[in-house]
Amino acid sequence: MPLEPISPDDAVELYLEDKDNELAQASLYAHQSRLGHFIRWCENEEITNLNELTGRKLHRFRLWRREDGDLATASEKTQMDTLRVFIRRSASIDAVPQNLSEKVISPSLSEEENTRDVMVDPENAEEILGYLRKYEYASERHVVFRLIWRAGLRRGTIVALDLEGYYPDEQSIETVHRPESETPLKKKQRGERFLGLVDETCDVMDAWLVDRRPDQTDDYGREPLVTTTQGRAQPGTIQSYVYSVTRPCFWKRECPHDEEIQECEAASDRTKASQCPSSKSPHAVRRGAVTHWLSEDLPERFVSDRANMSPEILRAHYDRRSPRDRMEQRRGYLDNI
């Protein structure tokens, strides 16, 4: 079939519209961001028609993107894997030659590069919770950190929680996928579930709702569980809460990087807390929680169900126990063999 001319911008727009029903909103934004770099490269190279792409030009993009973004191998792989999917979809609409996607080179990762070890240690998490319990009881940061550490919730799941989905008498919360009102879950309908909560978590939640929560509804008339004075807390807000409370200067009142706390921008400005080398993301807190549960001998099936992930993903990306730790945990079952 002859190729039909199309600009890079239009091709990316068609791709994102096609992907809208397949990907969670956060993943869709990630694809949009990665392909934005490809559009920028096309503009630099004066490529106005996707028909002009060749394997050699795609290789040049890879080298340009690696240098332009100072990308680590894992980041380069993510970039090129997304481009390959885009090129494959573009071939299906006669925008590029068939099989051009096979010429998109993506680096291979070692097992170590394919997993991430950044996480919050149990001791640090408990100290953070202790500090919040004493000085910021039932604050928005206390609620968010506790829901991630004790319930293993994703950032987007916390954003999606509503008042009507919290059941204090049953000590549980319900997560619901509502993409039509801008609160999708990462696993969509597979992310919908009920989660049990312990007494202390419910006490914190109850105090938040009675004394601290800004009385807000969102643009769809729903009452979010976690709010700000502007409405429903957004993913970036949740992220900033976690980065701010995981800085050692916040909960230990000391800096492991020999900075003067009063003069450090990451310490004095909560919005810049991510600049602290020791601050952690919500994902790192969640990974630490999952690893802690496994280290406490909770069954793998329980952990994967509570964290809403498959056992395979659990083992590959979240279980950070050392091989020796796993051996020692299995030792307790040797008498039954």
TrEMBL record:
Signal peptide: none annotated. Keywords: DNA recombination, DNA-binding. The keyword Transferase does not apply. SUPFAM superfamilies: DNA breaking-rejoining enzymes (SSF56349). InterPro entries: CB, DNA_brk_join_enz, Integrase-like_cat_sf, Integrase_recombinase_N. Transmembrane segments: none annotated. This is XerC/D-like integrase family protein. It comes from Halanaeroarchaeum sulfurireducens.
